Predict the structure.
Amino acid sequence: MKTYAVEDLPKNKIIEFFKLHWGSPEMVTSSGIHDCSALDGFAVINEEDKIFGLITYLIIDNECEIISLDSMEEGKGIGTSLVQEVENLAIKKNCKIVKLITTNDNLLALKFYQKRGFILSQIILNAVEKARKVKPEIPLIGNDGIPIRDEIELIKVLN
């Protein structure tokens, strides 16, 4: 498996990936509406030339926000290596923090990021209700039967 900057991959491949895994390339959070297929990022490509992991991010001033992270197989280090790629780039760009938003039902993401040095910094109550007004296909019930309501921001201070 090899890691590539998303700008080095065919755009239609990125769009299809987001349609398959998220319903569309559009991500709606309290930080904004993002076309993930237009963002910078990194992708891990397997031997069959398929995307096996993908991370997108946005840098504004001295903050880097991870907008999306997908790994097709857990426990293989794909997500970790993609987050490290973004952290390394953020350091080069003089960012002070890396942050991200996930939903209250995403216990795997909360565990994953906290194990990698991220801390919970903010809970945005009922944020997903507002996001559904823009993207109605966001499900009401998420992982483990948990109603999807709130957003949780996590941050990691860079040294």
